[in-house]
Amino acid sequence: MSAVLHPIPPVPQQPAPASPPEKTGRPAWFWLLILVTIAATAYGIWSWNARRTADQKALAAVPIKTATVTQGVLENRLRVSGVTAAVNYMNVSAPRLFGPEAGRPLVLLTLPPTGTMVKKGQTIVVIDGQSLQDHADDVNSTVVQAEADIKKRRAEQSVEMENLQQNVRVAKAELDKLRVDARASEVRTVVDQELIKLAVEEAEAAHKELVEEVRLKKVSQDAEMRILEYTRERHARHRDRHQKDVYRYKITAPMDGMFVVQNLFRGGEFVPISEGDQVWPGQQLAKIVDPGSMQVEGTINQAEIGRIRIGEPAEIGVDAFPGLALKGRVFSIGALAVSGVLQQAYLRTIPVRIMIDEFDPRVIPDLSASADVLVGRTENATMVPMGAVREENGSQFVYVKNGSKYVKKEIKIASRNDLTASVESGLSSGDEVALNYEVATVK
User: For 103-161, what is each residue's pLDDT tens digit?
Assistant: First the structure.
């Protein structure tokens, strides 16, 4: 009852603490990064526009280069690259030795320099053969001693044989004496007869033994003499082989011509063979070439084989002598295409030989050279540089100067080479055409 009349007041509730407000938006560093990126992009665009404007101004300042159309002869040439070689030549090699020391190196004493003109039979190469000559002299002394031993032994054998023959004669005389005594055996006693008979048999056996000994001694002496003669013959052949080698140490020219020294690998590079070098038997030392039969051995791509013919004239140049120009002609063309070692198998070339018709003492074998073969010629041609010709939609045109302007004009090309074209129509001799019209007129 009291609870109802006097209700208990409610306990006041403490208010909950207010939570902090949530943060919204981007941090300041983010906006700074955006500003830096925008600035960098704007600077890049400005720099690119500035360079482009400068390039356009520079191109606009390029003058127009022109060339004049001329009238003349247009030649179409095909370049053949290769090396020089001689048609008529002979190799000079170190001699192959016959003696037991055939594999030792040889030292060159004399050797003409490259380009020397030699005559047939002239001594051109001398090899050091003193040690071999000394050895041959020693072997010859052995041969002389062997001959002396044969004479001495033959005399000794003659004495030995005479002694044996004397023993045979003594035994024969003794046998004959006993046989005579045996004829008078009837007057002797039986014992004496038996003794005489035994003595005769013994003498016959001794005689036969001495005769057989003489025969065997003869066989033995003949065999001994053959051994001594074979020994002498072996030493004599040894000496003769060395003497032949010494003779071959002097090499003479097999023909008239130019002496061209070959190269050898020394000190990490290829250098010409010279005096004092060591060479091996059979090694090629040089060539003797006929300078009047020089040619260029080169190759052309198989796709261009139809453009060249035997007998066509050529102008030959040698890389070692830039100002040299010699006349020549196509001498031979290979029948089969070949592939090089350092190129793909499908890349094939045709060997071509260009004969050099003019003689020049500077042209020696193994020089890099080229031949420009004349494969086409147009007389009285209207010629324009290929640098002025433009092509568009299968047609050719040029920019011809007309007053202060350049007019685009279509032309028709009849023939061309790498630098010049012959025009059938569209141009006349004396016309001025632009070479760099597009570059010079860029805006």
Answer: 788 899 999 988 889 999 999 999 998 888 898 899 999 999 999 999 999 999 999 99
Mean pLDDT of 232-246: 90
Looking at residue 252, its pLDDT comes to 93
Contacts of 356 (CB under 8 A, 6+ apart): 84, 294, 295, 296, 316, 326, 327, 328, 363
Phi, psi of 392 (to 5 degrees): -150, 120
Q: Return the pLDDT at 359.
A: 86
- Torsion on CA atoms 50, 53, 55, 59, rounded to nearest 10: -170
Percentage helix, strand, coil for the chain under 3-state DSSP, each rounded to 5: 40, 35, 30
Closest CA to 433 of 415, 442, 414, 420: 420
Predicted confidence at residue 54, as pLDDT, reads: 65
Q: Is 426:410 a contact under the CB 8 Å cutoff?
A: yes
Average pLDDT score, the chain: 84
Residue with tokens 């260029």: 296
Amino acid in position 118: V
Cβ–Cβ under 8 Å, residues 62 and 436: yes
404 burial level (CB within 10 Å; 0-12, 13-18, 19+): exposed
- Antiparallel, parallel or unpaired: β 338-339 and 313-318: unpaired
For CA atoms 48, 54, 60, 66, give the dihedral sign.
negative
C-alpha dihedral (313, 315, 316, 317), degrees to nearest 10: -170
User: Side by side, which strands form the sheet with 278-279?
Assistant: 250-252, 123-127, 106-110, 278-279
> C-alpha dihedral over 323, 65, 78, 350, to 10 degrees?
110
pTM over 0.85: no
Measured CA to CA, the distance from residue 249 to residue 247 in angstroms comes to 5
Residue 302 vs residues 81, 191, 305, 373: alpha-carbon distances, Å: 14, 119, 5, 16
Bridge partner list, 395: 392
Q: What is the model's pLDDT at position 297?
A: 93
Q: In angstroms, rounded to a whole number, what is the distance separating the alpha carbons of residues 201 and 180?
A: 13
